[in-house]
Amino acid sequence: LSLYSSPARESKYVEDPQTQLEEGVSHLRHVMEPYTAWCQHVLMILITKTLSHYIKALCSDLFSEGCEFLQNPPAGFYPRLGVIGFAGIVGLFLARGSKIKKLVYPAGLMGIGASMYYPQQAVAIAKVS
């Protein structure tokens, strides 16, 4: 056997003849294709319009609530937010090397910072998990 040449292959593809059932299904699919395409088009339009309406309503509600909260925050909210955010940045600085560390350290330090300022919520989350 030579290492540099391969023997010529003489293979031939033979297609099986279609049965009468396969021909009937194929014909039915070709006849129904315009109707199914129309149904898919109408369904996509309905889904798109409905989802866009609900997404717009949800985003506007969340945005307005977030703006109201940031305009009238509770006392000491921004300093707490700063400490929790700084803990996340410190976690990113300490997490050199592994990708897992880059996920765990910032989240862990932010969680510890948040649990210092919000102990009742931290206990409730710990009980659930």
From TrEMBL:
GO cellular component: MICOS complex
Taxonomy, superkingdom: Eukaryota
Chain ranges passing through the membrane: 77-95
Cellular localization per UniProt: Mitochondrion inner membrane; Mitochondrion membrane
UniProt keyword annotation of Ubl conjugation present: no
Keyword terms: Membrane, Mitochondrion, Mitochondrion inner membrane, Transmembrane, Transmembrane helix
Entry keyword annotation includes Transmembrane helix: yes
Family statement: Belongs to the apolipoprotein O/MICOS complex subunit Mic27 family.
Subunit comment: Component of the mitochondrial contact site and cristae organizing system (MICOS) complex.
The protein's name: MICOS complex subunit
Organism of derivation: Pedionomus torquatus (Plains-wanderer)
